[in-house]
Amino acid sequence: MMSEKTVARLSLYRRLLKLFSDENRHEVYSHQLAEVVKVTPAQVRRDLMVLGYNGIPKRGYEVAKLTECIDKFFNVSKGIGIILVGVGNIGRAMLSYFREGKPYINIVAAFDLDPDKIGRVISGCQCYHIESMPKFLNDNKIRTAILTVPVGQAQGVAEFLIQNGIKGILNFTPARLKLSADVFVEDVDITMHLEKATYFSSIVTK
Amino acid sequence: MMSEKTVARLSLYRRLLKLFSDENRHEVYSHQLAEVVKVTPAQVRRDLMVLGYNGIPKRGYEVAKLTECIDKFFNVSKGIGIILVGVGNIGRAMLSYFREGKPYINIVAAFDLDPDKIGRVISGCQCYHIESMPKFLNDNKIRTAILTVPVGQAQGVAEFLIQNGIKGILNFTPARLKLSADVFVEDVDITMHLEKATYFSSIVTK
DNA sequence: TAGATTGTTAATCGATTAACAATC
DNA sequence: TAGATTGTTAATCGATTAACAATC
Fold first, then answer.
1. Is A52's CB less than 7 Å from nucleic acid strand D?
2. Most CB within 10 Å of its CB: which of A59, A105, B112, B147?
3. Which among B2, B196, B202 has CB closest to A143?
């Protein structure tokens, strides 16, 4: 089983490789990736080993082939469809964010309760009533959802999601979801991140 | 020096304590906090030890006093002012998010380049031209900034921020900032989080 | 008292790094 | 060849947990 940190780093390497590719660089060394991601070159080599693609001593890794391997690891070719639940401020920001320049992950539908939002197209994404979600998920074989509902509704909506086949949730609410162990929850706890930033910015006086 | 993880957990404990307080619970055990945060009770006790407030065997921790200690740890009493740079979709979402129910952290000003935004009040926050930032930071002794500019401008704006006294950045851009070591950067890498969620939701079939 | 929880340390665990033979 | 980088493992490091005496 792949560690969460390795997966997170592979996502970063992927982005860096795109930059190298844009600059027409054909090879990259482990220490070049390591510098940006702030790990040792050995760690990078270790991460890349799991992809089953080998670098060449003295030449490094071929940018194109390595990109292909990481894309394969993340199943890019399939084109991943996800849904978003809760079209509030953060929900709309995410619809806009993932509309641009994320070619393989697409938010294919948004769901809400607010009659003002239902039926509208927001940042290119159709907004439906949450009641129509079960049928939608079943028809489209969606496994991942972005959760941007108000905190009080988070647990209930999350349970509703997994009842309908969702296996992974990107949780932007501050709620700590209690769900069965076979569901993956990635928390993005914005308040916590900001409290960390304010805490450390006040003590780094030195 | 406090570990980042400990600070992150203290932020979570703080929120949980507020919930306990709302329920009129006066005491809390380490294992009750541990369950929600998904660590062992020993870890919770260890985290709380650093606050210099002791629990009582058999009775646990007093919710009110413990809250007070964590608030003190995060310097709540001071009322922390932060700024936001880049009033795009995510920037506006953050302005709205931190306007509600975050009593001690306030976004006191937003900055942008877009003439359409400058001079407006967005989610209760005044929007200024980025040129007026140095004076504002100096007058108001701000140390923390939320960075929500387009990725291509992130590094430049971040350098501008630290030139003007910012010591901590909450970075919502996918850029990996290269800054001096005495600046704290908290990355919120949304694409990476989503890629993690999609990866793990596709392999938890079991 | 008996039983449960605390503060605290030693042991454990897992992730990271140093190191090095192999290789281009 | 000489020098640099790779794949890989043993050593290191730091964070977490188990364990237990002290305590209410």
1. no
2. B147
3. B202
